[in-house]
């Protein structure tokens, strides 16, 4: 690993191309690094994970609408859509769009948290779509996907976006472009231009995750993937990009991030170093914002020590700066306490999540968010008794430089009506690599089964999982089978229609 200092350069002090961050990212993508067996196995797990959460959301309105848009763009020998028969193909950018929305809708796939936050599994829909359309092999896909994970996680470690109210897709889109470039075996120069274009078009505000959160939370990563596919296509045709995109006098760092005096340190692997960053990311067992995962598990555990939640007077969650200000009471969002709030808002309200987990002792990706569940009077009362407090120690642990010590949970104090208190804490979720029950292949397959119950037969699940397990050895034609079709009767929309423009 080598650290690179990134800062703004005035136009009078031109920065050589090879010293620019975008070029260094492109070098990571274009290098022929050896594969790490554990990283390859984890990638297969994440392909299984993405498919499970996508199929569980297959008939939700945002997913159906995105699929209908893709259905309007058929293409012979293109890419497949989740749920749709694998003999039907569509333009890769639209398949990336529809599949990306499906993967992101339930907020239940993988995560990485450091200086900023991310869902690196969002890299996979555009890479798989392009691989299918361009006739690439499983080995090509593995190389591209591990490069994309590496680049996104490196950016997330070094550059904070959310403090400047920028959405995390600004790190995702260049990673997607780099991963596609790596998968296609493009030159460093072409990948460099594609990365810069991807950065330039993907900066957006965090309003998509503030206030009344809408379905755009699911669409944003898919939009980034669509932009990345287009950026790579333009770069392959010889189009160039604004440069230097990070260090320029009027560019990203100068006017969208910490300003002209800022310096960032970005760690990137050496050319011969295996791309292992995927192993530092972690998936979700529960369908909710990642910072809630440990606290949901903690609610399950604390529930066993309560005779009844009706006797709870107040709940205080002592946690990190991020959890307090993004999904806690520090956000100042009244919608996070509203029984009529959208699902997207509720899964970003730790007050709601903890209250329901404490009452139910289970978490379900559908039932836990039903309007009637959110509106239960006893739940509303308990929910509104919850507050969060930033604890400097939990903030320090959240940012610990050692991934094995980094903590995303908190300490909870439950005050009862009789004056007694129940206290407990949990640093990481049970499914986290350092948790009580770390997810391995069996955990991912079990999660897939739970999410697709009644949709996918055991035979079809076995076929798909077997394909994922052979990922590095798949021939070009086999990648079209890296999909899980459903019976037409299980899908609410399978044909092009005229509800929109397309």
UniProtKB/TrEMBL annotation:
The gene is prpD. The keyword Kinase does not apply. Gene3D superfamilies: 2-methylcitrate dehydratase PrpD. Its EC number is 4.2.1.79. InterPro entries: MmgE/PrpD_sf, MmgE/PrpD_sf_1, MmgE/PrpD_sf_2, MmgE_PrpD, MmgE_PrpD_C, MmgE_PrpD_N. One of its GO terms (molecular function) is 2-methylcitrate dehydratase activity. Residues 20-264 form the MmgE/PrpD N-terminal domain. This is 2-methylcitrate dehydratase. Residues 286-463 form the MmgE/PrpD C-terminal domain. Keywords: Lyase. Belongs to the PrpD family. The keyword Amino-acid biosynthesis does not apply.
């Amino acid at each position: 690993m080598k650290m690179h200092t990134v800062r703004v350069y005035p136009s009078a002090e031109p920065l050589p191309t090879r010293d620019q961050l975008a070029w260094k990212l492109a070098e990571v993508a274009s290098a022929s690094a050896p594969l790490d067996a554990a990283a390859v196995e984890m990638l297969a797990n994440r392909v299984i994970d993405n498919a499970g959460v996508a199929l569980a959301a297959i008939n939700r309105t945002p997913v159906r609408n995105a699929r209908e848009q893709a259905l309007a763009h058929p293409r012979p020998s293109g890419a497949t859509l989740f749920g749709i028969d694998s003999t039907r193909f569509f333009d890769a950018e639209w398949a990336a769009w529809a599949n990306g929305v499906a993967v992101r809708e339930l907020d239940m796939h993988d995560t990485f948290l450091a200086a900023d936050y991310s869902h690196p599994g969002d890299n996979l829909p555009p890479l798989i779509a392009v691989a299918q359309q361009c006739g690439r092999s499983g080995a090509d896909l593995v190389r591209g996907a591990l490069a994309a994970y590496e680049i996104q996680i490196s950016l997330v470690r070094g550059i904070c976006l959310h403090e400047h109210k920028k959405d995390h897709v600004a790190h995702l889109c260049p990673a997607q472009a780099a991963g596609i470039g790596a998968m296609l075996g493009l030159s460093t120069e072409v990948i460099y231009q594609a990365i810069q274009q991807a950065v330039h078009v993907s900066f957006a505000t965090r309003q998509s995750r503030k206030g009344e959160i809408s379905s755009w939370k699911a669409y944003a990563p898919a939009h980034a993937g669509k932009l990345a596919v287009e950026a790579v296509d333009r770069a392959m045709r010889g189009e160039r990009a604004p440069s230097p995109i990070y260090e320029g006098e009027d560019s990203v760092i100068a006017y969208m991030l910490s300003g002209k005096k800022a310096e960032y340190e970005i760690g990137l692997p050496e050319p011969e170093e295996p791309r292992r960053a995927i192993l530092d990311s972690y998936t979700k067992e529960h369908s909710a914002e990642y910072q809630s995962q440990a606290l949901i598990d903690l609610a399950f555990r604390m529930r066993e020590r309560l005779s009844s939640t009706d006797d709870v007077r107040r709940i205080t969650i002592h946690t990190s700066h991020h959890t307090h200000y993004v999904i806690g009471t520090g956000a100042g969002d009244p919608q996070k306490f509203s029984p009529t709030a959208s699902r997207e808002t509720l899964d970003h309200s730790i007050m709601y999540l903890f209250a329901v987990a404490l009452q139910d002792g289970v978490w379900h990706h559908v039932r836990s968010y039903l309007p009637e569940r959110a509106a239960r009077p006893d739940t509303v009362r308990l929910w509104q008794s919850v507050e969060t407090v930033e604890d400097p120690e939990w903030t320090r642990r959240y940012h610990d430089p050692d991934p094995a010590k980094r903590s995303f949970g908190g300490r909870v104090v439950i005050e009862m009506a009789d004056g007694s208190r129940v206290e407990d804490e949990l640093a990481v979720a049970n499914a986290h690599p350092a948790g009580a029950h770390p997810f391995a292949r069996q955990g991912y397959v079990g999660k897939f089964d739970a999410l697709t119950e009644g949709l996918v037969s055991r035979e079809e699940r076995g076929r798909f999982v077997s394909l994922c397990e052979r990922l590095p050895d798949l021939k070009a034609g086999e990648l079209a089978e890296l999909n899980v079709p459903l019976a037409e009767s299980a899908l609410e929309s399978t044909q092009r229609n005229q509800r929109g423009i397309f």
